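__Protein archive entry__

___
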Amino acid sequence: MLYLFLPLLAPALLLAVAVRARRSPGLRPAALPRLAEYAGLGAFVVSVMSAGLLMMEGPGSSPLLGLLGVGLSVRLDVVSVVMLCLVSFIGWIVLRYSATYMDGEARQGAFTGWMAATLAAVLLLVMSGNLVQLVLAWTATSLCLHQLLLFYRDRTTARRAARKKALVARASEVSLAIAALLLIMSYGTSDIATILATAAPDLLTITAAVLIALAAVLASAQFPTHGWLTEVMEAPTPVSALLHAGVINAGGFLLIRFADVMLAAPAVMALLVMLGGFTALFGGLVMLTQSAVKTSLAWSTIAQMAFMIMQCGLALFPLALLHIVAHSLYKAHAFLSAGEAVANVAAIRRPGPVAVPSGRNVMQAFGIGIVIYALVGAIFGFDGKSVQAIALGVILIFGVAYILAQGLADAAPGALTRRTVIYATATSVSYFLLQLAALKLTAGTLPATPAPGPLEWALILLALVSFGAVAVAQATFPLWAMHPAAAGLRVHLSNGLYANAIFDRLLGGWSKRTQL
C-alpha cells in the first residue's frame, strides 16, 4: 500500500508555496507566482499518476500517520481520484491565470500563498481516509477561502459578504463535526471505508445523515442561505473561478462520499430532492434577470449546485459526480474568460429581428425533444436504467426543447432548424454515453440506485411537472413578456424574491456592520 503515499505530494507541493509566500507577501514577489504555477502543475501530474496507480493496484485506504485511524490518511478510489484530478487541474489553471491577473497588486505574494493553501486544503479534503482529517480539511478550506474573499479589506461590501459566508461556514463545520462524532460513536472507528461498508439505518446513523445533508446544503449555497454566494463578487476574478469551479463542489462531494450513509435515511434524501429541485428552479429563473455577468454566473452556480443536490437526493451519485466535473470545467472557463466575452459581445453590431416561436412551435419542440430522447434511449436500451436516471434525462430534454423552439419558429431559417435538431440529438446521445461511462467507472465504489418507493415516485413526478412547466413558460416568454404582470415578476425575480434580505433581517442585521 505504499502507493497511497503518492497523492500526499500534491497538497505538499502547494503547502510549500504557501509557506514560501510568507517571506514575500507584497508586490511582485519575485518568482513566487511562477513557482505556484509549477506547484499546481506538479499537483495535477501527481493526481494523474495516482489515477494510474488506482487502475493498476485497485482502491485502498490506509492510515499513514496517527493512531486508531485518527491522523493523516488517504482513501484512494474513483471518487477521490476524479476529484483530485479535477481540483488540481483547475488549481493549476487558476494559479497560472493569477500570475498575470494579480501582477501589480500590493499584496500579490499573500494572495498567491492563500490561493495555494486553499487548494492544498481541498486536496486533503477529497483524499481524506478518516473523519477527523475530513472535518479539519473542511474547516481549513473555509478559513483559507475567507482570507481570499477579504483580499480587498477596505471594501465594505467585501467585508459584509465575507462575514455572511463565515457564519454559514461555521454552521456547516459544526454540523459536519457533530455528524462525524455520531458516526464514530455508532461504528467505533473514524475510518471512512469501514463506516461505509457497515452503514446501517440506526438512530445515530440517520441523525448523522441529517447533519451531513445540512453541512452539504449550507456549503452549496442552497435556499435560503444562498445569498453569500451572490455577494462575494468583490474578490479578484481568480478567487471567483476557484470558488465556483472548485470549493463550492465540497457539498456535493460530501454527499457522494457518504452515499451509503445517506441511503440509510430515505426521508433525508427526499428532503434533498425537494430543496434541490426548488433551488434549481429558483436560481435558474433569477439568473435570467441579472444584468451583471458575474452575478448571473453566481446564480447559475446556485442552480447547478441545487440540481446536483437533487441528483444526490434521487440516489444518482455517479451522475452527480459527473455533474461536478462538467460544471467545474465550464464555470472555471466562464469566470476566467468573462471579461473577454463582454468585450466581444460589445463589439458585435446590433442583431436583426429575433424569430419568436409561437405556442404551436413550443409544443412541437417539446414533442420532438421527447421523441428524440425516446429513440436514442431505445437504441442504447432503457433496460437496466433506473427510473430516476430516465426521469433526469427527460428534465434535460426540457432544456433542449427550449433551444429547439427557437429553431422551429416560423421565421427561423432552415439552417437554424436543422442545427437545433442536431444539437438535441447530440445532447441525448451524450447523456446516455456519459451515464454509461459514469456508472461503469464508479461500479463497486458508489452504491446502485435503489428502486423508487411511493414517496420517490411522487417526487419524480413533481420534478417532471415543475421543470416542464418552467421550461414551457421560459420558451413562451416572448409571447407574454409585454403583459404588466411580467414586468413586475421580472423586478421581483431580479431581487431574488427578497429571500436574501429576509435572511439578513432574521440574522439581526449583523451584515450591516462594517467591522470584522
